Amino acid sequence: MYDQVAQNRRRSVLLVAGFFLLTVCIASAISYGFGFGLPGIVIAVVVATTLAMVGYWKSDRVALAVSRAKPADEATYARYHNLVEGLCIASGLPKPRLYVVDDPAPNAFATGRDPNHAAVAVTTGLLETMNRVELEGVLAHELSHIKNYDILVSTLAVVMLGVVALLADLALRSSFVLGPRRRRGNDDLGLILMVVGLLLAIVGPVIAKLMQLAITRRRESLADLSAVEMTRYPPGLISALQKLEAAPSVVRSGSRATAHMWIEDPMPQTQEEGKMSRLNRLFNTHPPIAERIAALREL
Prior knowledge:
About 70% of the residues lie in helices and about 5% in strands. The chain has about 300 residues and is of the alpha+beta class.
């Protein structure tokens, strides 16, 4: 397990570096399309570096805002705070900031850049559905993501994918708006912007899904094992996962950009839950809960 954690940390670095290079290439292509030349490419590198730094420092706030998470009052959510404090003391972690998402579907996620700058968010449905040992298992799972440094790359992915989508939209719109205006001076400009925009518009969602799959599937199973190591009580997390499997999982504030962060995929998985369920199952960011439960029962 420890080898897997170390391997995931190395993959996290590679994923972040790959996104940085992708952003530089996209921005450079757009700059070339506008005819800015080498100075434009230098600007593109500076912009990509700035976006990476902003993403590193502010990505957790973006993820919490997108999920409509609110700070968890210590008096109102005393059990929530007490369980997290006990788990943090046992595992040697600093206590993360705690948030609540007002939604009846039981679910949870962790975010941040490192254990000293982390946050955990749970839905009101999770707090109402889970008993003490089950809630402890879920919280241990999320704290394991923090301990294993999964939160850095999963949180950065939210900002990264947004930047790629923004650049794709910019290139596509520019191809239609600026291309005809400058076609007299540069016949290739409109074509270049059109090609870049269309390629990004097509490839962007695919890159998003591949990144989410690379980030999530193995890390979720690893977090389950780390959580059991933390609580020393596999039945607690097993029972929690069984309740998650049986309950509706769709979170109103969930999105494909943040789906990989939750303990269970918050997007519709059946026709009864909502549209696009087949596509969501095809690109599910999580391993089946039944497989996760089976792995825990073997411990």
